[in-house]
């Protein structure tokens, strides 16, 4: 099984589940089991083949699963626990059970072996980040990703909705955001160190607010929380293509057609805060109850703030000593606005380094666990997101057979070896680690097939580590067996032996960016409060 349960004991006996089997128990928990096992076409009833009970002494995601000759018994701490128990039950069935109900093997009974499983996750944040700003992925791909996450007990989908290269969500209050800022006329296709080359093909797209509402409801039914990101105050070319008056200079930008970071930056003055508060209202109104909203704070070029007499005077009026302190103030004001709306702010680690944040702001230390430890020691909750080994846009080997990637190398074994709460941290610091999350930046991920290749099976290792705290010693063996489930699900993962011929695409220039060198540089930058500039 992946992730490996805390306790699994094999029992004698077995039970046959057939399409139309009955699931009984409290409505919400029984419905969770039905959602988790769509291929069985389970029917509700007062008593049946799968009996679900709730135990308030268990944690909300904890469960006990017992199968044998008398049927299937699930005892859960809440809806989430019942859903996870059903996913574990699914992994007891043959690989063919992961195919659609019309596929081979369906319409017959599935034999469930006798087991007793007792399980609960170590971390509550088990996440995947998807950048839909650099390359847009339509709603159908997001819903499919939710299903795959749920099958692996991953439960946070971080959608990077805004960047220099595109704005990806409808705004009824500021319609130029989706009318102008959501598309670009062309996209850079050259690799690092090569002459500039563009595809001259328009690229764009956005989610309507109704799309977001649908995605959030679909995710909630599968115990996945959507975490939207509006990245500010930098990465602002697309916003300023639509509303240049929100910038520090008033000049109009084009939606960026190349990679990297531009000097485009939003103004920190009150009209910008009002604009973003309206965007938050639209987002939260569409998503429903939203416990977390990411506001970025990374790779900010503050030159235009420094050059602006109006912004500098505003800084002085607030009693702030530096422009990084003004950025910290700006992000704190946005976090206050989110708190008023029932959401906690999440930021990248530059925002922590720049100045004092609201104490309840969650920090994502992408530049390494050293700055993550400092954030935890300062009292912030932390979600581990270091480039190594959790940036899945990096190649899995230093081979030209790999499809083009930002750098190398991050392997499945690297992910499996990661420990989100290191043993040498203090107990207090470790208690601040909410979990971990892998990042998929999509400069070189332009389609769903490449997305599959980059995510899987590395995300299987992520699921193992975030559920159990560390990978079990037999993870590699279990992963080999698990690949049959991915095959049945139609996932075009990277084979352990390397890419298939059609997965190679544009050859990768191995060694152009080495992740070990990147991490050394990033770690040194985290000690400088002025290090908000682009770090890579």
Automatic annotation (TrEMBL):
Catalytic activity: Hydrolysis of terminal non-reducing N-acetyl-D-hexosamine residues in N-acetyl-beta-D-hexosaminides
The Glycoside hydrolase family 20 catalytic domain, residue ranges: 123-469
Classification via InterPro entries: Beta_hexosaminidase_sua/sub, GH, Glyco_hydro_20_cat, Hex-like_dom2, HEX_bac_N
GO MF term set: beta-N-acetylhexosaminidase activity
Residue stretches making up the Beta-hexosaminidase bacterial type N-terminal domain: 2-119
Gene3D superfamilies linked to this entry: Chitobiase/beta-hexosaminidase domain 2-like, Glycosidases
GO cellular component: membrane
BP terms from Gene Ontology: carbohydrate metabolic process; glycosaminoglycan metabolic process
Active site: 299
Keywords tagged on the record: Glycosidase, Hydrolase
Homology family: Belongs to the glycosyl hydrolase 20 family.
Protein's UniProt name: beta-N-acetylhexosaminidase
EC numbers for this chain: 3.2.1.52
């Amino acid at each position: 099984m992946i992730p490996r349960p805390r306790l699994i004991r094999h029992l004698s006996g077995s039970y046959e589940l057939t399409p139309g089997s009955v699931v009984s128990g409290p409505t919400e928990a029984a419905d969770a089991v039905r959602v988790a096992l769509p291929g069985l076409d389970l029917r509700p009833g007062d008593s049946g083949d799968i009996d679900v009970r709730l135990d308030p002494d268990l944690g909300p995601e904890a469960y006990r699963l017992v199968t044998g000759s008398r049927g299937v018994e699930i005892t859960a701490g809440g809806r989430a626990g019942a859903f996870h128990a059903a996913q574990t039950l699914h992994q007891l069935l043959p690989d063919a059970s992961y195919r659609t109900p019309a596929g081979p093997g369906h319409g017959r009974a599935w034999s469930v072996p006798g087991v007793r499983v007792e399980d609960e996750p170590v971390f509550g944040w088990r996440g995947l980040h998807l950048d839909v700003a650099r390359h847009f992925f339509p709603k159908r791909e997001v819903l499919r990703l939710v299903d795959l996450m749920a099958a692996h007990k991953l439960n946070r989908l971080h959608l990077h909705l805004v960047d220099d290269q595109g704005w990806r969500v409808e705004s009824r209050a500021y319609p130029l955001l989706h009318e102008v800022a959501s598309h670009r006329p062309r996209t850079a296709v050259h690799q690092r160190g090569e002459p500039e080359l563009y595809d001259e093909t328009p690229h764009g797209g956005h989610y309507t607010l109704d799309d977001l509402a649908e995605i959030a409801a679909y995710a909630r039914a599968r115990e996945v929380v959507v975490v939207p990101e509006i990245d500010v105050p930098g990465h602002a070319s697309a916003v300023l293509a639509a509303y240049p008056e929100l910038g520090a200079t008033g000049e109009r930008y084009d939606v960026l057609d190349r990679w990297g970071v531009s000097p485009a930056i939003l103004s920190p003055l009150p009209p910008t805060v009002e604009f973003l508060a309206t965007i938050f209202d639209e987002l939260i109104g569409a998503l429903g109850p939203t416990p977390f909203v990411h506001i970025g704070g990374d790779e900010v070029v503050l030159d235009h703030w420094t050059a602006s007499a109006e912004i500098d005077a505003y800084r002085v009026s607030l009693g702030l000593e530096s422009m990084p302190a003004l950025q910290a103030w700006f992000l704190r004001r946005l976090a206050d606005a989110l708190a008023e709306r029932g959401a906690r702010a999440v930021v990248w680690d530059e925002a922590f380094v720049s100045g004092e944040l609201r104490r309840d702001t969650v920090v994502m230390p992408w530049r390494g666990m050293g700055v993550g430890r400092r954030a935890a020691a300062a009292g912030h909750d932390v979600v581990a997101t270091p480039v190594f080994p959790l940036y899945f846009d990096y190649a899995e080997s230093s081979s030209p057979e790999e499809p083009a990637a930002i750098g190398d190398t991050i392997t499945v074994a690297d992910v499996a070896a990661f420990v989100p709460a290191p043993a040498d941290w203090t107990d207090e610091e470790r208690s601040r680690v909410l979990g971990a999350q892998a990042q998929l930046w999509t400069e070189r991920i332009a389609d769903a097939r490449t997305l599959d290749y980059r995510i899987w099976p590395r995300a299987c290792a992520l699921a193992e580590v975030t559920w159990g705290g560390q990978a079990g010693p037999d993870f590699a063996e279990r992963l080999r067996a698990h690949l049959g489930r991915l095959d049945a699900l139609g996932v075009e993962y990277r084979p352990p032996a390397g890419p298939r011929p059609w997965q190679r695409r544009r050859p990768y220039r191995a060694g152009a960016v080495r992740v070990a060198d990147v991490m050394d540089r990033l770690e040194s930058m985290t000690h400088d409060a002025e290090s908000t500039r682009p770090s890579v």
